[in-house]
Amino acid sequence: MIQEKGSISISTENILPIIKKWLYSEKDIFVRELVSNSADAISKLKKLQDIGEAPVRENEKFEITVAVSKENKTIKIIDNGIGMTADEVKKYINQIAFSGAVDFIEKYRDKTDDQQIIGHFGLGFYSAFMVAEKVQIDTLSYQEGAQAVRWISKGDTEYEMTDSDRNTVGTTVTLYMAEDSLEYTDFYKMRDVLKKYFAYLPYEIYLVNDDKKDVKKENLQPINNTNPLWKKNPRDCTDEEYKKFYREAFDDFNDPLFWIHINMEYPFRMQGIIYFPKLKHEFETMEGKIKLYYNQVFVADNIKEVIPEFLLMLKGMLDCPDLPLNVSRSYLQNEGYVEKISQHIIKKVADKLNILYKKEFENYTKYWDDINPFVKYGCMREEKFYDKVKDIIIFKTINNEYVTLNQYLERNKNKHENIVYYVNDVNQQAQYINIFKNNQMEAVVLDALIDNHFISFLESKNSNVKFLRIDADITSSLKDQTKEENEAETKQLSEKIEKLFKDTLNIKDLKIKVEKLKTESTPAIILLSEQSRRIHDIGRIFMGKDAGNMFPTEKTLVINLNNKLVKSIAESADDKEKEEKNKLLVKQIYDIALLSLKPMNPDELTEFINRSLKIMEMIV
Predict the structure, then answer these.
(1) What is the rounded CA–CA span in Å between residue 452 and residue 442?
(2) Which helix (H) or strand (E) holds 410?
(3) Sign of the dihedral through C-alpha 309, 310, 316, 320
(4) What is the pLDDT of residues 541-561, one digit of tens each?
(5) Mean pLDDT across the chain, nearest whole number?
(6) Could you name the CATH architecture of 394-476?
(7) Contacts 24+ apart (CB under 8 A), 480-488
(8) How far is Cα 72 from Cα 133, in angstroms, rounded to an integer?
């Protein structure tokens, strides 16, 4: 017979700060700790059975039951694992559980950021006192002739040990809940917590509502999947299984684009699946979630010390049994093999992209609209990732083809060597696109939010390459190189038209230039200095729309002397009777050119419409 009272060898002034720290950061961590202890107890018994040191019971099924009761204000965690003897309770509960507490407090005395704590500190069982006024353990060891033990404590330094009426091998931990934590006795609240941490625990977990006496245990289904897809060999998994697992894990009705199945044993153990989701819009790239597991127990989302930052845009799960979780996040950053894990993940992602590019190029181009923001961000954040994927970064052209940077430069070296022309708004810049197409010129489409930064990044990596927006310059390929028969007459017309536009528009800082373009249908285009436009765009990002006044873009109005309308205006520039008409046409030409750059504001649009009506009246 057991009858013992005593004091736990730790002072409350040391343990309470830890409990309080948990209480205000991750209160439901007690569920993870206690159920994890039950899983460990089962694993230990299985191991002893495997080596012949514990008997194998007939029809034995290992499982964990969590029973909640609002009426009794209790939570029970029940397992049929290894159990404990009275001596083991004294050793593991009364002493060992607190062995590292003083060192922990001393080490982290100056740490005030809640995020410094990850949760796994070996205190395990005592996390129960975060939420319980009293904790009771009933346990029976697997050892032959063992006697069941009951241990009770109210969270102070006192405990009581007596005989227990438990008659099966295993352990039951009963929490008598404090008033401020009664929400955990709710069946649905507990179900959510269990699913969060133990959706893939290797032992079945059953959740029981003790207040419903008519619900039989044999009719219940486990809340977890004991064999998640990442545990299978990738060769044995079908595409439909990957998609189904993704939909269930992330409550996403859309199928993922593709995925990477990680299954390795050396130099560290890691299993998992990383999914590339289909995005509705670019902002969704920031909504990814990489779930980190430790022996199939959920630890945290998006731990930046383990998961490279740019991969946090994706979705997936990684199970890393070798990860040191009983340390702080700051310590994780200094772990050499944690860095190796991060680098291995980067390599696996880069390898997958290279395989798609080389073996499934058509699919790769289909995925590109969704994955290119992620790839570009990854290149800018991780040098090693850029080195691995730089040759498979592709660009969609205005002709709906896909080319790499080197392919584009090679194809266009005779027209504009080492210059990449690009479009960032296909609709707004349609006029310029048509000019390029009509002259067999090529430009790439860079219309993602990240592209403004990515262009600068690529220029820094390729010092001889310059990116110019399609409206930044007129390449010689677009100019009419036909030899002039009467250069003096052309020069005179150019001067007249330049003066007329200058005097009529009277716009400060607007540069005016007269050229003969190959495209006769376009009367004028506006060019924006690439450098000033980039400064202007960056200013708007960081300082808002008013930054335009601080960083004005340099505009150049290029008037096409090969256009019939422009030529007619130039030839009648000295005709006083046509002076008013010419001024209307000059303003109209400028506004039409301006429309290719930006929408008009209400006042500008009103003036444009009224002027259009006047011109129409003059024609009638």
Answers:
(1) 19
(2) helix 405-411
(3) negative
(4) 555 555 455 556 788 899 999
(5) 83
(6) 3-Layer(aba) Sandwich (3.40)
(7) 480/516, 480/517, 480/518, 480/562, 482/516
(8) 13
Which pLDDT tens digit goes with each residue over 489-542? 888 888 888 999 999 999 888 889 898 888 888 899 888 888 877 776 666 555
Show the 3-state SS of 465-521: CEEEECCCCCCHHHECCCCCCCHHHHHHHHHHHHHHHHHHHCCCCCEEEEECECCCC
Q: What are residue 273's DSSP bridge partners? A: 261, 317
> What pTM, to 2 d.p., does this model score?
0.76
Enumerate helices (H) and strands (E) in the chain, giving the number of each.
Answer: 19, 21
Please, what CATH class does the domain formed by 13-219 belong to?
alpha beta
325 pLDDT exceeds 60? no
* Half-sphere exposure at residue 168, Cβ-oriented, CA atoms within 13 angstroms: 8
Cα separation of 130 and 15, whole Å?
11
Instruction: Determine what percent of the chain is predicted with pLDDT higher than 70.
Output: 84
| CATH (one of 3.40.50.2300, 1.10.510.10, 1.25.40.530, 1.20.120.790) for 479-618 | 1.20.120.790
Question: Is 256 in contact with 276 (CB distance < 8 Å)?
Answer: yes
The arrangement of strands across the sheet holding 402-404 comes to 402-404, 394-397, 444-445, 419-423, 466-469
CA distance 331 to 478: 60
List the Cα angle 264/270/276 in 5-degree steps.
Answer: 95
Q: Which segments are annotated as binding site?
A: 33, 37, 79, 84, 99-100, 171, 329
Query: HSE (CB half, 13 Å, CA atoms) of 262?
Result: 25
Report the distance separating Cα 355 and Cα 350, nearest Å: 9
- Domain 229-371, CATH class in plain words: alpha beta
pLDDT value at 231 more than 90: yes
Does 119 score more than 50 pLDDT? no
Whose structure tokens read 């127990």? 297
Distance CA 228, CA 203 (A): 12
What residue numbers does the annotated binding site for ATP cover? Answer: 33, 37, 79, 84, 99-100, 171, 329
What is the pLDDT averaged over residues 283-301? 75
